[in-house]
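Z., the sequence and structure:
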Amino acid sequence: MPEPSAAALIAGLEARGIALFLEGGEIRYRAPRNALTDSDKTLLRGRREQIRDFLAARAAARGLRTAPPIPGPLTVSVAQEMWRAFAGGAQEGEPVALNIGMVGTFRNTSPQAVTAAIRQVIARHDALRVSFRVEGGALTPWLNDAETLEIEQADLRGLSPEAADAAALAGSREFCARLNAIEGGGWLTRAKVFALPGHAVMGAISSAHMIADAGSRNIILDELRDIVENGAPQAPPSVPYNDYALAERQFLAGPQGAALIEHWRGWYRDQPTLHAPDGTPLQWGNGLRSVRNFAVPRRVLDKVRALAATLKVTPFHIQLAVFAIAMARWSRMERFAVRVLGDKRTAMELSGTVGLMFCADAVQMQVAAGADFETVLRGIMVEYDAALARRIPSLHFWAPQCVRPGIEAPDYPNRIPAVFNYYSVGTAREKAEKQAAPDATATLPWPPQLVRIPDSYWPRRSSPLFLHLMDYGSDGAGSLHFFGVSEADQESFIAALFQTFGEVAPV
């Protein structure tokens, strides 16, 4: 039986009411009388340095979470620096433009009203109005005036309702797929309004991922609907993105930030290299990427939700554990790391912050051969919670210690082999509308039929394994990305993934 991680050890003690903390650099504890046994004390003494390091990192990350926003001059955020290093440059937009598309249909209104609402939302969030110029190799940001944004118009009222809806949907997809070049010097946000028959309007906003994320999409669409229907946004203003980014940057430049970065460097050095079944070491790189997409029927999501309710966890936890078990079986390794995408909007005052607020947490997976599903699940939850408690703001394509570009060389090897992205897609209103509609997925097969799109060259570094799972409430969608994995091993991983899923949540 492998030795438990420091996170698992501390979690086990805390579950017994034994709270560990640092005082003057030394480990202290609070506990009920006689709760800490002699064997506990021996174990703590034997792993003193690991535990001290973990507690220090947890305390530093708490300082980052509670750092107050700092009003100040417009500044490129740390996350934006990382995004530019990943997605910018001469080959930006290849093979696809990385945008956040925000598309909504509004009833009983006019194109003029939706146009005005879009302009009001863009004026409300500075993050959407930022552009960048390159000066001395660095990015310098500035704010565009909301009134200077050209909002394109398309009049489809002469078509039948069905034809107009189809044309607007196709037009919005094409519009949101256009490149908003980071270093082009122009607007990184675009907008277009489609006038539809019957006093309906489709509004489309496309922002470069550099300045927005999926959470921003939901915030913006909710605000647009509030303005169109009620005349004004209903949610109070949140912390401006620039104020949040300045506080984050200041923290990372200080002693606590340096300690947190160093903690993750040490953690990273301790991670093993995962190998595919054919022996290939799984490391990030540039080259051909294979993508397979699939649909998730409503009955499958309902099964996962029912299991999550029984185990008192979330569907996210179930899906992450399935992914980890499949990786362990496929690679024949019991310990490895996965990057799990997340959201830095962890406080009420950040709930409406628009900007590049997504992040990735590096999580150690411990999957003992033969262990039952709930045991593996609970262990993964401990490690995931520990990663959140020591969160460092990084993105999925950087090793954890590359939280600030320049700390390591751009080609520093990233051995964390896999990325897991589970996202609940849509606003509450969108989900309610979809849930009320008839189930259009009842006849879809499960396990699903995977659709392979043509392999394409990605100039940006890619992870060997990347699983996207999008939960729309009424149905779902998945996408598996492979890089540097042989055809045979791709197929065997797909088989392992859906076999594991079938064992955990049979439908």
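The first strand starts at residue 19 and ends at 23. The CA atoms of residues 480 and 494 lie 9 Å apart.

Let me know what you think.
H.
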